Amino acid sequence: MALVGRRRCAFSTAALFKASIHDAPLRSVLYVPADNPKALVKAASSAVRADCILIDLEDGCRDKTSGRANAATALRSNDFGPKRVVLRVNGKGSPWEREDAATAALIAAEANQAAETGRGARLHAIAVPKVECLGDLEVVGRALATACASLPLWAVMETPRGILGLSKLCSEAHTLSASRAAPWTLQALVAGTSDLTKDLRARHTPDRLPMILALTTIVMNARAYGLVALDGVHLDLTNSPEAAETFKRICQQGRDLGDMARCTRPKDV
Fold this sequence. Notes:
Elements: H1 14-18, E1 28-33, H2 37-44, E2 52-56, H3 64-77, E3 84-88, H4 97-116, E4 125-128, H5 138-146, E5 151-157, H6 160-164, H7 166-179, E6 184-191, H8 193-200, H9 212-224, E7 228-231, H10 241-258, E8 261-264
Helix pairs in contact: 2-3, 3-4, 4-5
């Protein structure tokens, strides 16, 4: 995988503060496994009308090595049109955390340089799973600095500690962004409802009552700090009228809770 090499530089964060995710609608985020190159090509096509494509190196990707190479190729070789592209890496505690972070930063540097000259798609953000504190974003932050890249980060909130510490995380990230001392800024909060339900020992219910506190906490902090709030993926993948109706209801629920964008998987659509 040909990526930009190491070089001496001082990263610039100017672009982080000029561009806003609110400049265009963000209503749907489609998760696509990074180890499925055919799905990545289809996701880039006009047939897929999601506002954002999230290339997944974490739970949805079995072959991490090929996934990293596929992610770089997808951005280099495809025109995603108006769709944003986000790369989800493996987070803390994972044996792939540091390699994913380094690769994501290099992909960001290469892709965004190429996009300036019309030779590929831009990487808009990196999603970091299982975030509980500001330190959980530091591995990606250091990798971005090493690669001379700057990029927004999305924090996936999927643990009880993460939800309880969310206000502190957002406050510290806001202060850091205001100082412009880091090559990243926090841009979005993503509800990791599947893992959170498991950690709470709760049940997946049609009304999602066990998730309401977490979802409202995410929305509250997102609105307080000018971030985007994204709802979690839908788990019922059966092709039935009942499943379709449930999916419709939880989309409406996310809207009613605070205009949350919807994360989806290919089988949802």
